[in-house]
Amino acid sequence: MASFFIKQETMVNPHRYCVIMCGGIGSRFWPYSRSSRPKQFIDFLGIGRSLLQMSYDRVLDIVPPENVVILTNEQYASLVREQLPGLADHQILLEPARRNTAPCIAWAAYHIAARDPEASIIVAPSDHLITREGVFVDAVLAGFEFVEGNDALLTLGIKPTRPETGYGYIQVGAAVSGDIHKVKTFTEKPRLELARVFLESGEFFWNSGIFLWKADTIIKALKENAPDVANTFERGAGLFGTPAEADFIRENFPGCMSISIDFAVMEKARNVYVECVSFGWSDLGAWSALYDNSPKNRDGNVTQNCSVLAYNSTGNIFAVNGEKLLVVDGLKDYIVADAGDVLLICPKAEEQRIKQMVNDVKLAHGDKYL
Amino acid sequence: MASFFIKQETMVNPHRYCVIMCGGIGSRFWPYSRSSRPKQFIDFLGIGRSLLQMSYDRVLDIVPPENVVILTNEQYASLVREQLPGLADHQILLEPARRNTAPCIAWAAYHIAARDPEASIIVAPSDHLITREGVFVDAVLAGFEFVEGNDALLTLGIKPTRPETGYGYIQVGAAVSGDIHKVKTFTEKPRLELARVFLESGEFFWNSGIFLWKADTIIKALKENAPDVANTFERGAGLFGTPAEADFIRENFPGCMSISIDFAVMEKARNVYVECVSFGWSDLGAWSALYDNSPKNRDGNVTQNCSVLAYNSTGNIFAVNGEKLLVVDGLKDYIVADAGDVLLICPKAEEQRIKQMVNDVKLAHGDKYL
């Protein structure tokens, strides 16, 4: 078909890659997020694209589409193919076991380095929300330039907007280039009083879990700081990018230790930097995060995908699949989540107990409702 | 098939009839009770029989099965035939419009009188609960004997067990025979303080809406006390029990005034008596009545037809259709009723507002959810 418009191709660097981590089970969003269809595969905001699809869309201005690599559990292979039909098979790496982020990131690095020894990589979760995508793109482009010119492990630190106790924090040290600083310390989720001090100090940023580095920089850092993890993949040298890779992973990945990249590398390495950014980010880690990031009606209720008639009800999140009418009276600050065969009614303040509830459901009913 | 046992036929008087009123829409039990399938057609207690079927079963020791007459709205004809397949067509009288109890009872009386001038009748709602059926049968047999020997309109008055504000009360006068007394007054639903006085006095009984009379006694009482209603049916003299009855009703019933039998006759007539009884009765008029009459777990929760995992939750009624798992935290004294396309969450104390909610739903969504 002829067209009067020619889309201007964005100049993207062919050595830049994006790894999207997509293997989580999102149990804090149960029953909306199910082990058979976790939260990253759900159109959480009701806009027609799942969180994974949004994560994919937003990196297409940064890396060539053929340089996007999805890491996921093998159980979700068909979901990924269904939601991102443009991907080639070699762009989807299927983990045969859940081993936290370090083994996942290590495999991706060895896989990409075998394909392109000059590769630089952004690693991003598939289930986060970013509202200001233009600012995100500019920040990532600046980050790529930094890691490509330096032997650096770079993490994105989000300028905090509230004394959030659900996130880890990064204390920044000296500025080295633009918004990029040396990292002074990583800090676990703080208590509220400490979170307030962090917020006021201006020195602490939320740990986003989004990383940039060259493939060879992270491989070197793994060898130095997490040799057990690195050795697993060193044994496959020469197999990555070949038809033998899948068999090698199936045999060796499950034996790798389960450890996060923060604990394995970032908190130990000396060449760790943080780019201080602000682009409307949330990890959508639990219902209250979704509540905070969703439009509310005048009673402060958030409604997802359903018709609601609410009386004397404020501060709730109503998430109901399908063509259901919800009639509610006298509920304040609750989660009401209906997922067909499971209905959850729980105070927002008790959402940290949902994981325990899921365990209880498993004990009572097996996997039927998970 | 041969049998070694011969069921002993209960001697039932062939002039005794039972009219079961079955046309209500049960909107106080919405969304469990829907206009397309109101509460009397639902297996409310999860025992395999609907309230209508239970009402039918319990009169078979009192009247011959062919003397049971069901009055219902024409919209429910197929539901009645499905639930009571043994009935002949002439035992199902289909009202073309909703006109409260007096026109319904009047039609039944004219219809039965045409078939059997010596008929005596028990009139009973289809959606009440009676737990002690043997006591009920004995009371009704005594009542039939009384009305067959006297020019009497008899109502069953239930000995109150609590200061219920949701029922009408009957004040009893002098005893005339066994448990049967003259009625002194009918009283509307009292406020709580008054209900307490009623309960302590021993003189007040709940108005059950169950009546006994001879067909000619109620027809005479209608002529004297509600001539407008009686005249509607007098115009059909000669047609009842003939093939012309249905057309006559279709043309004339909708024009009849809408009025309750209490207001039209019982509160006016002089020959009104009450039989004071106690057989575990509830009108199941609303969710709290169902709650009161259902077995509770140790947290005081009532569960209907569903699996529930409840935390910090007491005094609730959980009524969920189908194979659903309900997980609840922090709910006290609520109704949670899921009927497929509608989910209601409402404090038990606010159940009188459900009718208003149904109206609001109709305004917003038409008949879709009614």
Structural topology:
The structure is a homodimer of 370-residue chains.
Chain A: E1 16-21, H1 51-59, E2 68-73, H2 77-83, E3 92-95, H3 101-115, E4 120-125, E5 129-130, H4 133-149, E6 153-158, E7 169-177, E8 180-187, H5 192-201, E9 204-214, H6 215-225, H7 227-234, H8 245-252, H9 261-266, E10 272-277, E11 281-282, H10 287-292, E12 302-304, E13 307-311, E14 317-320, E15 325-329, E16 334-338, E17 342-347, H11 354-365
Parallel strand pairs in A: 1-2, 1-4, 2-3, 6-10, 12-14, 13-15, 14-16
Antiparallel strand pairs in A: 4-9, 5-11, 6-9, 7-8, 7-9, 8-10, 16-17
Descriptive report:
The structure is a homodimer of 370-residue chains. By secondary structure, chain A is an alpha/beta fold. Chain A has helices spanning 51-59, 77-83, 101-115, 133-149, 192-201, 215-225, 227-234, 245-252, 261-266, 287-292, 354-365; strands spanning 16-21, 68-73, 92-95, 120-125, 129-130, 153-158, 169-177, 180-187, 204-214, 272-277, 281-282, 302-304, 307-311, 317-320, 325-329, 334-338, 342-347. Mean pLDDT of chain A is 92; it is low at 1-9. The relative contact order of chain A is 0.14. Chain A is 29% helix and 25% strand. Chain A has a five-stranded mixed beta barrel with strand order 6-9-7-8-10. In chain A, strands 12-14-16-17 form a four-stranded mixed beta sheet. In chain A, helix 1 links the parallel strand 1 and strand 2 (68-73). The termini of chain A are far apart. The interface between A and B is medium-sized, with 32 and 32 residues. Strand 17 (342-347) of chain A pairs parallel with strand 15 (325-329) of chain B, so a sheet runs across the interface.
